[in-house]
Amino acid sequence: MDRYDCAAVTQWTAEVLQAAGISPPHAALAAELLTRTSLRGIDAHGVSRIPIYLQRIAAGEITSNDPKAEWRDGALHVDGQGALGQVGATFAVEQAVKATEKVASAPCVITNCGHLSALGMFALQAAEMGRVALVCQRTPPVMGLPGSPRATIGNNPIAFAAPVRGGTPLVFDMANSVAARGRIQQAARDNAPIPADWAVGEDGQPTTEAAAALMGYLRPMGAHKGMGLAMIVEVLTTGLAGWPAAAVGAGAPGSGIGAFILVMNPGLICGQDAFEDGTHRWLRQFLNASGSGARFPGQRQAAMEKERRAMGIPIPKSVVRELREAGQGVGRDFDLPPGVGAQVE
């Protein structure tokens, strides 16, 4: 695959979203986040998402409406108004961080918002502003235990982040399936096999064929434990939103995919110095006990972001083809030259 300059990718992403009908401010914000997601190595949730976003914009499922927030009874209620997930979630985090200047924690329920893609980006956003954050989102049913005739629940990802004094924040982001669906989608693009424990085909049997897996359902990580975590997310997102109708008709603003964010200010809970000193000691002990080359979640992504900003973002040729086709549909072909003239294996 070739590498592409991150600034050029950001500009093209903003232009293609605008050409599809998204307002310049929303397009610019989403472009920055999607590019940074790719910079941090979360490739299946970065700029590769553009083709499906354009489809949803064309269908009227994503709008340029500005999200709205209401602080009520000690909780934030954010109505995404059908905006891109990056727009809605960024707005929610900003509102929650502002609220925690006066209160120790701010739970936030988000409704009528597009898919957030990599949840860790929003937990990171809060951590970079000195907060501890938990983010989770409901997805459509894509996961089930072997033996189920169909998918029974979303793989409902969860992310967590905390600031680390003098270093990159701790950021943990996971789907409750053995593997994220985005990885299977990429394997299908590349006609590559997947491990047998990732998914079940339409026949109810484990499969190593990515295309068959996309027609079946994902397996939960840790069997019943992954299912239990997915149920927690279902309650925090859809449940705390009052269990609205899960399905949204074609052409309706918003994806019907609920999200939940909990932002906490350690300075108001235990004192900023106590939190930072303790976190520093704990992580140092963890790294020392884990041996040479050990790292905590978030360090690898931070290092990759630095490297890719300098060397360019590697994009698989299969994704480049999809970006070109999607861009041509709105008059913004992905015609960027490789950023540093280098190729990666």
Brief description of this entry?
By secondary structure, this protein is α+β, with helices and mostly antiparallel strands.
Task: Give an account of the 3D structure.
The protein is α+β, with helices and mostly antiparallel strands and 345 residues long. It has a single domain, classed as 2-Layer Sandwich (Ribosomal Protein S8, Chain: A, domain 1), CATH 3.30.1370. 41% of the residues lie in helices and 14% in strands. The protein contains twelve helices and eleven strands. The chain has helices spanning 6-19, 24-39, 50-58, 85-99, 120-127, 181-189, 210-215, 224-239, 266-269, 272-290, 299-311, 317-328, and strands at residues 2-4, 68-72, 75-79, 105-111, 132-137, 158-162, 170-174, 199-200, 217-218, 259-264, 313-315. The strands form three sheets. Strands 2-3-4-10-5-6-7 form a seven-stranded mixed β-sheet, with helices on both faces. Strand 6 (158-162) and strand 7 (170-174) form a beta hairpin. Helix 4 runs parallel beside helix 5 (120-127). It is globular. The N and C termini lie close together (7 Å). The relative contact order is 0.18. The model is unreliable at 247-252 and 341-345 (pLDDT under 50).
